Fold each of these.
Amino acid sequence: MSWFADLLGPFRGFAVTLRQVTRPRVTIKYPDEKRVKPDRFHGRHVLNRNLDGTEKCIGCELCAGVCPAKCIYVRGADNPPDNPVSEGERYGFVYEINMLRCIFCALCVEACPTEAITMTHLFEMSTTNRDDAIYTKDDLLVEPDGTPNHPQPDSKLIDLNELKIGDGWMRATSPSGRAAYAGVVQWTPSARTGALPAERGQSGQVNDEDSGEETDG
Amino acid sequence: MNELIATLVEPFDAAEVELRSYASSETTYHAITIPVSDWVGFALHAHEIGFDTFIDLFAVDHFTEAPRFEVTLNLLSMTAKERILVSTRVPYDGATVPTITDVFQGANFYEREAYDLLGVDFPGHPDLTRILMPDDWVGHPLRKDYDIGEVPVEFKAGSADL
Amino acid sequence: MSDAPENMEAGEPNGDLETVQPEQTVEEARRTQHEIWVSGTEERMPFAHATDEGSQELLPSDLDPALDIQRGVAVDDDYVVPERVIDDERQIINMGPQHPSTHGVLRLHLELEGETVVRVKPIIGYLHTGMEKTAETLSYSQGSTNVTRMDYLAPFHNELAFSLATEQLLGLEVPARASAIRILMTELNRVSSHLLSTATMGMDIGALSMMIYGWREREICLDFFEKTTGLRMNHNYIRVGGVAADLPDGWEEDVVVLIKKVNDGVDEYEEILNENPIFLDRTLGVGVLTPAEVKQYGVTGPVARASGVDWDLRKAAPYCGVDQYQFDVPLGKHGDSFDRYKVRIDEIRQSLRIAEQIVATIPSGDYRSTDAKVTPPPRARINESMEALIHHFKLFTEGANVPPGTAYQSVEGPRGEIGAYIVSKGGARPWRLRWRAPSFAAVQALPAMMTDSLIADVIAALASTDPVLGDVDR
Amino acid sequence: MSFFIEAGIRVVFAFVFLMVTVLLLVWVERKFISDLQNRIGPDRAGPFGILQTLADGVKSFFKEGIIPARADVVLFIGAPVLAMLTALLTFLVIPIGAPIEINGVSYSLAAMDLNIGLLYVLAMSSIGVYAITLAGWASGSKYPLIGSVRASAQMISYEAAMGLALIPVVMFTGSLSLVAIVEAQQGTFGGVIPAWNIVLLPSFVIFLIAGFAETNRPPFDLAEAEQEIVGGYHTEYSGMKFALFFLAEYINVFNIAAITTVLFLGGWSGPVFGPTVLQWFLPVFWFLAKTWLIILFFVWVRASLPRMRYDHLMAFGWKKLIPVSLVWIILVAVALGFREFGAPWA
């Protein structure tokens, strides 16, 4: 029957296309349905707070220094001794990100020594003027209870819940290549996400001894 | 230095050969430096003895060093599985390297690119015009004395004196 | 700088061509025929024709020796140059920079006689963003964010070439797991790139569904990249010294599923295209590139292998231990569009085969060099060790210091040899980064493929060459 | 007077019917092709995106009409009108159902039942070539010119094949009137197989292939070949003028499918039963069902085949289709001769 198969060869494409009718669709109805993004997704930045409400940012400007696109502007200031804003000696007095220049490489997340700047799953950030794309500290910093802010909270496209998840890249890069640190929690919990577990690591085990408590997210 | 490379550089007294190896690999390649007078002759000779695959040609601006421009030719011998990087140095005044488009057709675009971005002249090239930059561009951007230029990044607090 | 070659005399005047006078050199002809506007002035001279492009203009054939040189060498005996009609009857059309199938902003000046393409001139530079210059201002740790954007369909390969070249300068040994991860990601990247290429080739030839199917399978690859690196393109994942992060939880299952799905998808493409008489008519014997031309123009990768040139850097100059995996190098015979398509399809299968082996054999251990001068310390160490904190700050502000020297490193990208040539004069930034872009050479070889074919063949040849203009222009 | 009233009603009905059909047709094509490609397809305007075409039409209507500087204005505007006109006129002779008898008067369900209907169809599609050729020429631009040259060569070649494919049908049924052709296909062979002209299988296949070429549908859409010559003859068209071309193309698709149904698939013939009103509508239903099946086939082909190359297309038309048609005509003639006069040796 091989001659028959040869004869059908040119028409096999018709069968392939017709077969697709029964397959599930690969496209989704975007603004109505949203793709589930992976943990490490690089989305909009947030500035985190500690569980006690103090800011994590200590104004060290490492993020601004490492940024290949030079899109971060930080100016630190000394903490007022009576009412410290951050845990350290200084805090980020001005913190701005020009989202028009940001390339979402997440080097700032890797650079931040206090896990103050992390990335979330929100990427719908279109604006109608250039000014709105410059995110100030007010837009970036989460509330003391962990609720994130967004400059256009009412936009239909935006699911603000996506701002509440994230930090995957910070967790993923924390071991910095050391197998010994895989599965070790190396960060302090933040008000936005609570305590986060480490990734499973190469041994398949999560080392939870440092995290202290179970995560809820 | 293996036999093929020895044959390659043998007619050229002034050629210097340096053996380098790739990262995380045992494979090696040869960096050869020749005077500019031997440039076309070397290319021809290399083509004859088997380095017939043209891979790359580019220039480097060393700026602070005496012969300022370095033009490097990257050739491959697929039969011998050898790679050579042939370089020559030319000074700022008279940064001219004779074209090798007669030996390797593929050098055409690459010499145009080197001319366009670093201002090295290739006399004899059939169509030495700018290739990446606009025709009316002034200067050669990859030269070290070419100003990088800067676009100020807009920030809300950036201009305000806080 | 007057660069008009002295030996290039203009030919006899041919017909009554508008403004070209006899006894002009090429340079003079350009100058008189095309008044272009001078930057900095408001003045803008009207162009003689709608297709004028200053010195990039396709001149009458007797005035343009450059293209005759580009027309191919050592061609087959049956390569017949048809007798030219006089230049008056030529029609020049611009294909691109805005055209549905020029893969970005490639511009082809086509000289037509009816539908037959007599001469082709590729014009590039519309996407030139000076990335080689940018690289000189970025440190080695920032550099991979830059190079990954050059060939945006092969970001991992670009990062790998850059990282390997830097490691060559540093004399750095990379842990085995890092190498395995690098190979896994680059091979999957090759799959995704070839899938896209096959898809767009189908689209360009008019097989609409092929487009969607190719992107469908590519999506699976991109999903895996996104899960691993957080980004779908331009990952900045392969860094100097290793990779930025370990593979994500559950990656083994993902890769196994990916291999199965992509293999099934590729089967479908072959069912649609391989025996389709129209597809065969459109691609067999179209856009032929001979092995001699391949070597002359420096075309590498699948395009070269389709012409029967057995050259794969993974075999010839293996990097990251890719030689320890079993795979074949698919070769074509005729160097035509169909062979290029077929070589890509076969390479997808071979890459998946490598990925399969990596899942089975990946070693555990560190996945980034532990050299404190290259790799930042683990996050937990920052709070414990003063030295770690200093290293952290130094690496993220200044970057890793690299000793002086030069290094060339090439990897086998989806489009051919991606070469990174770094000149270091010490310090944390490259003095010069030269990027050997495979598409650049391929674009240069386009006239050899397209001359004396039909417009439809131009598209088939271009699609099967698969140039990425981000790579061409950098 | 009553003739004009009746004609007016028929024309208006035909126009409305065509417009609704085209709206549906574009939607069905987009939806079905998205099914074939694992996509969702249009789903925003109206339920299942059924109003998408309407939205696109309204958008085109309000768009600025751009006329290129070098265009020949009269022809540039006239060409889409001509394309639309020929497409609409072709439909007039197609009977979409069995004749309806009211008060003893039989009304044909074709807008007009010409006794040379088939010739008329061919004539209209020949004039349709002018629309495309003029559009390309009048644009004053290079890609459209190439497209229009391609189109004229292609459509003239395939018209020959199409005409030759129709000759056996005419010989078989003995009439050029489309209504008569359908009526000749009533009944069955041996009471089981419907007596449709599809028994003239080679004619059917050639006609269908030529139909693809005549309507500029993939795999023969060389005249507009987006990937090669950008948009072919309608590269420079936008707004309402483009929409007219677009509509004309889809009306032509429907026409070709309908004519195929009429000529080869027995037109409106099918089981008819029930009360009078149902007996009026069932033939229309059978006709539309067959036509839509062919349209879906058109879409399916579009999703499955790449575009042919120009020279292959011409070679295919002249070297394959036309010789096969000629041979087939002779075979049919001989067969008919046997049927009519008996074997010469008998």
Note: Strands of chain B lie at 16-21, 28-33, 53-61, 69-77, 82-90.
Amino acid sequence: MITLQQITRELKEYDGREIKIMEVCGTHTSSIFKNGIRSLISPKIKLISGPGCPVCVTPSVYVDKLVDISLKENHCVLTFGDMMKVKGNEHSLTEAAAIGGKVKVVYSPLDAVKIATEDANTQYVFAAVGFETTTPIYGILIDEIIKKQISNLKILTSLKTITPALTYICENEKNIDAFIAPGHVSVIIGCDAYKELAEKYHKPFVVAGFEGEHILAAVYEIFLQLKENKACMKNMYISAVSDKGNMQALSVINQYFEPKDDFWRGIGVIEKSSLRLKPEYFQYDAGSDFDEYKESPPKGCKCKEVILGRISPAECPLFAKQCTPLSAVGPCMVSAEGACGIWYKNRGRE
Amino acid sequence: MITLQQITRELKEYDGREIKIMEVCGTHTSSIFKNGIRSLISPKIKLISGPGCPVCVTPSVYVDKLVDISLKENHCVLTFGDMMKVKGNEHSLTEAAAIGGKVKVVYSPLDAVKIATEDANTQYVFAAVGFETTTPIYGILIDEIIKKQISNLKILTSLKTITPALTYICENEKNIDAFIAPGHVSVIIGCDAYKELAEKYHKPFVVAGFEGEHILAAVYEIFLQLKENKACMKNMYISAVSDKGNMQALSVINQYFEPKDDFWRGIGVIEKSSLRLKPEYFQYDAGSDFDEYKESPPKGCKCKEVILGRISPAECPLFAKQCTPLSAVGPCMVSAEGACGIWYKNRGRE
Amino acid sequence: MKIDISYGSGGKQTSNLINDIFLKNFDNEVLNRLEDAAVLDIKGRIAYTTDSFVVTPMFFKGGNIGKLAICGTVNDLSMMGAEPRYLTAGFIIEAGADSEVIEQIAHTMKIAAEEAGVKIVAGDTKVIEGNGNVYINTSGVGEILKEGISIQNCREQDVILLSGNLGEHHAAIMSERMGIENNIASDCAPLFSIVSDLLENKINIRCMRDVTRGGLATVLNEVSESSKCRVEIEEPSLPVSDEVKGFCNILGLDPLYMANEGKMIAVVPPEQAEKALEIMRNNHYGANAAIIGRITKGTGVSMTTVLGGNRMVDILYGEGLPRIC
Amino acid sequence: MKIDISYGSGGKQTSNLINDIFLKNFDNEVLNRLEDAAVLDIKGRIAYTTDSFVVTPMFFKGGNIGKLAICGTVNDLSMMGAEPRYLTAGFIIEAGADSEVIEQIAHTMKIAAEEAGVKIVAGDTKVIEGNGNVYINTSGVGEILKEGISIQNCREQDVILLSGNLGEHHAAIMSERMGIENNIASDCAPLFSIVSDLLENKINIRCMRDVTRGGLATVLNEVSESSKCRVEIEEPSLPVSDEVKGFCNILGLDPLYMANEGKMIAVVPPEQAEKALEIMRNNHYGANAAIIGRITKGTGVSMTTVLGGNRMVDILYGEGLPRIC
Amino acid sequence: MCVAVPGKIVEINGSTAKVDVMNNTCDVNIKLVQAKIGDYVLIHAGCAIDVLSKDSAEEILWMFKELEEEVHDNSSADH
Amino acid sequence: MCVAVPGKIVEINGSTAKVDVMNNTCDVNIKLVQAKIGDYVLIHAGCAIDVLSKDSAEEILWMFKELEEEVHDNSSADH
Ligand code: SF4
Ligand code: SF4
Ligand SMILES: [Mg+2]
Ligand SMILES: [Mg+2]
Ligand SMILES: [Mg+2]
Ligand SMILES: [Mg+2]
Ligand SMILES: [Mg+2]
Ligand SMILES: [Mg+2]
Ligand SMILES: [Mg+2]
Ligand SMILES: [Mg+2]
Ligand SMILES: [Mg+2]
Ligand SMILES: [Mg+2]
């Protein structure tokens, strides 16, 4: 059996052509930082953070709408903690709370049921962001709302799907050599989803878990495939990820949601890249259809280039100057899973 | 011209039969205490505090209703500061505020207009207590509500009139020798109101202002009348009080209010002793008609005897024992103009 | 800029708030070290006190909550015959507060601390949910110049001096709240200079107390209770400005129960009363000082009224009007 | 009994509250005199600090806000090499609070103060509008046992000790809030006995700091900045209980940024590191103490990860989750 | 509860007047009285309820004169 | 954002289960999985999204074995 030491030695000593590997999922980005993975591999192997941080890709008009709702009389926004700091065009939810908006951080969408039941005089809106991992849970939430006839709870959705985004990148960004496919999204959608992509675009797709060992193994697998000029889908998170995914969860998604075109902050509109409530459930939607995305990217912000792996955050001229976590120019600096923010927190490492 | 010194010497030296003078108005009660009037006159001249403290005579069900309103979702009670501490059957408004009730202290009923206009989502209820002095101001308030079409402001009334109460006392309490008539109620109703009473019951009625000198002069006037066995109405507050009163104010009262029987805490029901909104204005009333007054006077409380001048507060067995301003058994201990409370604060004077 | 809840996290935003506002204004070598605790250079016996400040509105004629927070603690130290030396300042800030407002409060504190001769050597900042209110706790230590000054010390025949007009802080605050226009300014002031004048002139002070929440009535009842004596005062000698009298008439307030923030009583032996009065009057903050009464045998506080009557002056029950200091 | 706004008036109700709850529990001859300021019996150089406590919920496994208020201030004094002696306590109570709850908090403070060997010698009580929350400010003074302990003092090669497991206070609070059941109790504890053990054994402590709001990451960054050095730590040596690890996994928390209320770091010369570790481990509150890293040349805080990688440990930005101390 | 205080009207705007009470100015509703600038009015709960015809000092003098007369009448009746 | 954590089901009440994560017990919705007491599930945002087939240590061993084989295959292909 190969050892971790052998893997890291080989990855560290690599001195061939530059390899660009995109980890799509924000949780991978975060784990790479926390485990100091970059320090364990050759600088010739670049790990690039893709568009899999939902906070980073959520359009600012969506945040604006949440802010507006929070400030309405007798309204309250329920959200995961991650969304609190993201700026809309004017305010973040944290700032909205400071000027009188009502915002409550919850751990699970299902907590909303209890909260709304206990306070019938407030109209609650859940900030339903996320990828396929989280969408079935919103499905269960709608289920509960219907069954329990809860009239003061709706969701405002910004739900992305990962395959259209991957297709977009494969089509448009030729410089990415391989992908670490998201672990928990794959639990739901299954790893078959990447087989076609791997074949069509001739890029390795490795499904990985979130321990440092998982990530190093995935990088090594990619390293091996590239060395052999292979381009396979490889599932290295077999404890959780199956070929077809979680059929039960997928059927909940299909029951309540349908695909729609959607806007990705920093990227633009990607076809059929989101899930919206089906028309028959519109009464549970707090207005998730945005006519236009007034998204002029913040002046000077190179988020798009960062997310697509064209530059590293440090190459953005604003990085650590005008743009810091406390005065973030782009969303990638503010999210806990954003590439620029993680880069910033790791500055000064020799 | 007679001097203050002469008056006080004569009043101090008096040693004839005991004289009982009732000051009807709570503001007189308070001024008598603040000026130390009792220390300036003979103990044979007893000054008795009548039922003219609106806080003392307001039934506890009225306070209960205010407390209930304050605790209702999106409701807020507006009140003068004086009402805050008075107990209903369970809570005072101060206590209601501590358990989440919304209560706001205002200086004038007319402040309510601005408050209600600025916050259309809250239903405001003004605690309209008082005597004839204050009733015309509630009339002006209703006028404003109508003109400005304010839909979130009503009044809950407990408005007393003084002459029925005086008639009741004259009929039932033979031991009162004379009355100091209220100064500011008389500004509105005029001093003619007391002529008939003075004659019918053969008791001096002196209308007095609120300075210490006013009160001493009134006591002296009564002293002179009793000495001569006279029983006249005498107006000693001529700067403000006329024979017929303030006709403009009286017409406002008549426009909006009509007399009704009413319950006086400590006394019972007195015929036609209150003013209620006329039926055509019921939409501005927050439910001032109380079917029944569940008023069992607090156990052991001698409020009735105190208010009617049968005993002094110190003669109540609970006084300064179970009953103190912080653990008041009866309302007379809690109000700033209540006889027992004032007596309590003056305890220890030799 | 609005303070939001993240300014209380203890992380970067908290430290920015501390650097940009508090360190900038309170600037001194002890505080700047940002240790867990300040190390003080102090000699002799020490007086030590604390107070929290929660006034609404936070800004008013004659000062703001920051000035109160300095003067209140400085005065409590002074009343024990101590020279105020070092303060701590703990800020509890409700989300929604403007950083500009906090800056203004801190700046006022800086100026007040300079006048009072004290340094703010330790601080703390927390952010809670709310509507932008700011609450300040200060504690203070001082060097005792004269031992034995105590509220338990008053003796029969001693004379009670009051350093100036009653009710001005209370009236200033309530005027803002009730929208009544006048020129009444809070009397908020540091009183150590009066104390130091009295001590330098060898006045054998029995007891001092600043007249704050609860007013003169409360302070005199505390004297009566702690020294086990009767306090007798004369209503005509109580200094109250006409403007404050008018204000009290409008709202039905009694100056005896109204808060000051720059007034004190001093109880002195009868033979030194006139001299003490003169010293007080010569001090900028004691111009309207008066002899208001004396200590006798018995209990409670009694007052001879303007009309020559007599009545008791009890402490305050319940709360007349919303809190003002 | 619910506290209403009249309990903050400064009148009879305020004094009843003070007598019935605070004087009863904090009972000592200095406080009982109820002077404007306490007069202290203290010698030598003095350490002085303050903190406010605003934790939600107020009661949690392992303690309550009152215990925090005592330990927090006692620990800040201890970290300067001082023996904690006297505290002040300022209560800001929101209307609606139960007097029974306040009594319970005061009683806990009494017990914690006894354990820590401090007396509460001055206090203050204010009542504000609100929903029954209680906020406490404490300040403290202590006698410095060893001079020169300072966050600016760390030198290259010095070794960093941590007195025990990370994150337990934070996890205990968050467990209550999130309804997660476990046996994690707040580590809230007075640390003076560890300090005193180290000093008695002649450990030449460069710097100490209690690990509170902002967590170990924040404290180490403060060390780096104040001592102008790099701090290097080893992830595998950081003591974290499995239960806390599991808890962190559930909520996505990082023990490096989590608050403790009974943990400290001590920076000592390399040759005394092992001895210091042994002393810590022999103390009841230091059983899980560990050497976690050292001081080197440079800036910032870097960490060798479990996998042998290396990364920087920055301070906290914004606010991960609602405040917990 | 029927506390009232005298003040001098210094300005009138429709049914509201600015009234001066020993240098304290407040807004007072004057719908219940016929008042002009310079008048002294009695203010209760934010409303003028009366125009005063004398000032307090004058009134107190008048009272003592009245009482003097009554005493005089009485004592002469005694004889 | 797609953070998830494995935990062991210790109790089931209808569609809710008590799940143990290193001695931390929390309530988890299990509508998206077929799970029984004793199963290890992956918990995301209060929901079990998967029943785990291996434990983490096992999986990591398996990965290293797989990689060993691949390296082996590759190097043999080299020859
Ligand atoms: S550093 Fe800031 S401005 Fe530059 S790409 Fe990142 S988020 Fe945008
Ligand atoms: S002392 Fe108390 S119980 Fe007695 S009559 Fe007065 S209010 Fe009633
Ligand atoms: Mg599976
Ligand atoms: Mg008239
Ligand atoms: Mg500390
Ligand atoms: Mg104090
Ligand atoms: Mg004070
Ligand atoms: Mg602090
Ligand atoms: Mg004081
Ligand atoms: Mg501190
Ligand atoms: Mg601290
Ligand atoms: Mg105090």
Note: Residues 212-227 of chain B form the longest helix (16 residues).
